[in-house]
Design goal:
GO terms for molecular function: ATP binding; ATP hydrolysis activity; ATP-dependent DNA damage sensor activity. This is DNA mismatch repair protein. It comes from Purpureocillium takamizusanense. Belongs to the DNA mismatch repair MutL/HexB family. It holds the Pfam family HATPase_c_3. The chain is an alpha+beta fold. The chain is 27% helix and 20% strand. The chain contains 20 helices and 29 strands. The protein has an eight-stranded mixed sheet with strand order 5-4-3-6-2-1-7-8. Strands 9-10-15-11-12 form a five-stranded mixed sheet, with helices on both faces. The protein starts with 7 loop residues before the first helix and ends with a helix. About 18% of the residues have low confidence.
Length: 851
């Protein structure tokens, strides 16, 4: 079979599907074309369910000759934006042709120099109609002059895309996500556009409307704060919190503003490169990450725990932890500005470094205690770094602080500013002082060896094969490394250079070598005292008890750590660690039902004898058994957790629904308008997990009432309302920022097991269940009767996940294999040859010491 080229219409469709990916991309591309045409008013109408988009503008319009057959409208690689200019968005001439290949495209335009309109209709790259001049029903009459572009049934020729669009946009939440993305992108365009502009947005399914208007005010702070409020990305009360910032280097200039008020989402962040919007659609943009990392490593958004303030109060990051900012980036130089980031090798590194510097200085000025930042590249990140990184040091060249305001002392790491930490920073260096009399005129370098070696003789290489360093670059390759020398500060150091090569005509002084003196031996009387004396305070640690298998201890490790739950508290500072214990089988949940109780150990563990499951079928008398140590706290915690999770839902015929208990007194809290709309939008998601909400709209704010909760978390949330409030808000923003559409099914299939019912459960609900099971479980030092121990092991055998507690710690660990047919404790199985030899050697040594 011969290899043939694809048809032209297939090639055009493949190219177009790579250039056009969504209806939002089409709408934003048409808006940029309107901006390049000089429009000041733009109307955008969308229908996400049908894939339709309509854009009207009052720009200069398209000349009628471009609508003719020999014109360039909607043809591939045809553009009116030649020569390239940083004041224009498009330059490749492929956008309109790509849209025409994937939809039904209609263009009607009235050029400001002509008295008539023109019309063109294209379906899947096939021209349907050309009207020059256009008939009355196809004329453009919205403004005196301008263009109307209509896109219908985008991706209508692709059945897979049509089916996907119908399934996704069936839910209003998916439409709201696309709407929010469109609003943020259009807002960024308005922020970067230098002239006055008004954009009206309308969505047909949800009947949502929004008008974004940027005034002619040259104040960037007023412009940014106004547009953020219009887009519902900031509250009107935060207008005074915006602070202007700017920085520049030889190749990059950044101007913008940052708000001192933290927010709960990263959506209130925007950047632009000139007039081109820089988006962070999937939270994977390196420029946004550079800024957020600096803010994350500071006290920005830190709140105190509810226990109250004090020296022992804990600080934690609250839900509002992300900054609001807008940065407009300019690459200096017309050629670099026109190419953007694609063709510039160091532009991205320069921009990221300068953004980190702006963020660091902003946080330090407003006393948010930022940590030192690391430079992204080795050199040429920003020329202002030498000035900015001195800001943390007290210098006469630093600007004086403002009157009436003093800054608190910063941590040691913060005082370093933005100075990059070199990979050679931890290596030893020698600093040599120069006398003033030696600064003028070269002098012969003294050589204590009497002669100077030839270049390259006796020198060790600095770089070996593969580009790896084979020695430290700051040591003299001619010196003997074992020769101790004295540095300028009088400290004797080993492995330091005794000579220094001349640099810029300077002369180095030879470092004097200290003579080695023999250490006098102590007298026989003193030596006898030292040998026989035992320190009563710092006694030598006793010899470790020999282990049966391996050199590492198996079983109990003591460590004094404190954590957030009882599993890691100071009272429960015992941890089970699995060592290299060889077993002739494996532990299984089914075998735990046959476990034999031995004893409770140290009121912390339960020692049991457990039959092992082998991969091959073996008779009962040949099956091995193992000694297993069970953590009584972790085991009871696992049992209680699964009981809570199994009772979270109620079986009703073939359906499973969450159990909801009404509150005697509703939990009421207020939220801003934007957050209240999001909570109301995701109310069905919370109802699917037993959290009943009532959202009431009030002027300027929303009131949320929690009327019902699952019984397993009700008492805790009633005593601490902050827990359920933070849970609702955090889950709402997580749903809004994620790309997945949440499952809102109020019913689940009863034939499935309960672990499958918790798929997609809010993390906050799981944390409350974990906390309750841990707080109410059996603690260490609780003495249990043999019957209680057997009952606990029996309950553990019926759990779905018996081998770990709620927080992931192991609940049991095997100690030893008792071998097959062992009817009593002590019937050890023969170990491996290495283990037997070590045990035999240790036993023989003990016998020899006893004799």
């Amino acid at each position: 079979m011969s290899i043939r080229q694809l048809p032209d219409h297939v090639i055009d469709k493949l190219k177009s599907s790579a250039a056009v990916t969504s209806l939002n991309g089409v709408a934003c591309g048409l808006v940029t074309n309107s901006l390049d045409a000089g429009a000041s008013r733009i109307n955008v109408r969308l229908d996400f369910a049908r894939g339709d988009c309509l854009v009207d503008d009052d720009g200069s319009g398209i000349e009628p000759r471009e609508f003719l057959e020999d014109g360039g409208l909607a043809k591939l690689h045809h553009t009116s934006k030649i020569p390239e200019s940083p004041a224009l968005h498009g330059r490749r001439g492929d956008f309109v042709a790509a849209v025409a290949a994937l939809s039904m495209l209609s263009v009607a335009s009235h050029h400001y120099r002509h008295i008539s309109s023109a019309y063109l209709s294209i379906h899947n790259s096939q021209v349907l109609a050309r009207r020059v001049p256009a008939p009355p029903e196809q004329r453009f009459d919205v403004f005196d002059h301008g263009t109307r572009v209509s896109v219908r049934s985008l991706f209508g020729s692709m059945p897979v895309r049509v089916k996907h669009r119908a399934s996704v946009f069936r839910e209003r939440s998916a439409i709201d996500k696309e709407w929010g993305s469109l609003v943020r992108e259009v807002m960024t365009m308005l922020l970067s556009w230098p002239s006055q502009l008004s954009v009206s947005l309308h969505e047909a399914n949800t009947q949502r409307q929004l008008r974004l208007k940027s005034g002619c005010n040259t104040d960037l702070v007023a412009r940014v704060s106004s547009l953020f409020v219009q887009a519902s990305l900031a509250d009107s009360a935060d207008a005074s919190s915006w602070v202007p910032v700017s920085a520049s280097s030889r190749q990059v200039r950044i101007k913008g503003c940052v708000s001192t008020t933290p927010v709960a989402t990263k959506r209130s962040q925007a950047m632009s490169l000139g007039i081109q919007a820089i988006l962070d659609s999937h939270d994977s943009n390196v420029l946004y990450d550079a800024v957020n990392k600096v803010f994350g490593n500071s006290s920005f958004g830190v709140v105190e725990d509810a226990e109250g303030a004090g020296p022992n109060s804990k600080l934690r990051k609250g839900l509002e932890r992300w900054p609001m900012f807008y940065f407009q980036i300019h690459l200096l130089g017309s050629s670099v500005q026109s190419r953007g980031l694609d063709d510039s090798q160091n532009a991205l590194s320069d921009i990221a470094g300068l953004l980190q510097t702006i963020s660091f200085e902003f946080l330090k000025k407003h006393r948010f205690r930022p940590l030192a930042i690391e430079r992204l590249s080795d050199k040429s990140i920003f020329s202002t770094a030498k000035v900015l990184k001195r800001s943390g040091k007290s210098s006469s060249r630093s600007p004086a602080p403002s009157q009436g305001r003093t800054s608190p002392p910063l941590p040691r790491d913060s005082a370093r500013g933005v100075r990059a930490e070199s990979p050679f920073g931890d290596w030893h260096r020698e600093k040599v002082g120069w006398a003033m009399s030696n600064l003028h005129g070269p002098k012969p370098l003294p050589n204590e060896r009497g002669r100077r070696q030839s270049p390259g003789a006796g020198r060790r290489r600095l770089v070996g094969q593969g580009g790896k360093l084979v020695r430290k670059p700051f040591e003299d390759p001619l010196m003997d490394e074992s020769e101790p020398v004295q540095s300028a500060d009088g400290v004797v150091r080993a492995n330091s250079a005794s000579e220094c090569a001349p640099d810029a005509g300077h002369q180095t002084k030879r470092l004097r070598v200290l003579a080695s003196r023999p250490k006098p031996a102590p007298s026989p009387w003193l030596q006898g005292i030292l040998d026989s004396w035992r320190n009563p305070v710092f006694e030598t640690a006793p010899t470790a008890v020999p282990q049966i298998s391996g050199d590492d201890p198996v079983g109990i490790l003591y460590r004094g750590t404190s954590g957030l739950h009882h599993c890691q508290s100071k009272e429960a500072n015992v941890n089970l660690e699995v060592g290299s214990v060889s077993l002739a089988g494996r532990l299984s949940r089914s075998a735990m039902a046959e476990a034999e109780f031995v004893a409770q150990v140290d009121r912390k563990f339960i020692l049991i004898k457990l039959p092992l499951v082998s991969a091959t079928q073996m008779p009962a008398d040949r099956k091995s058994q193992a000694l297993v140590m069970v953590d009584q706290h972790a085991a009871d915690e696992r049992c209680r957790l699964e009981e809570l999770m199994a009772g979270y839902f109620n079986r009703d015929a073939d359906l499973v629904k969450p159990v909801t208990q009404s509150l005697d007194q509703d939990i009421v809290f207020e939220t801003p308008k934007g957050e209240g709309e999001l909570i109301d939008r995701h109310r069905g998601h919370f109802q699917a997990w037993g959290v009943s909400l009532v959202v009431e709209s009030e002027p300027g704010a929303f009131t949320v009432r929690v009327t019902g909760l699952p019984p397993s978390i009700l008492e805790r949330c009633r005593g601490e309302p902050r827990l359920i409030i933070d849970l609702i808000r955090k889950e709402t923003w997580a749903l809004e920022d994620s790309n997945a559409v949440p499952e809102r099914s109020l019913s689940r299939e009863a034939r499935r097991s309960w672990p499958s019912w918790f798929r997609g459960c809010p993390p906050g609900i799981l944390e409350l269940l974990f906390s309750r099971s841990c707080r109410s479980a059996i603690m260490f030092n609780d003495e249990l009767t043999p019957d209680e121990c057997r009952a606990l092991v029996g309950r553990l055998s019926r759990c779905a996940f018996p081998f770990q507690c709620a927080h992931g710690r192991p609940s049991m660990v095997p100690l030893a294999d008792l071998g097959p047919g062992s009817s009593r404790i002590g019937g050890w199985r023969d170990g491996t040859a290495i283990e037997a030899e070590r045990w035999k050697s240790w036993w023989m040594d003990r016998q020899d010491q006893g004799q």
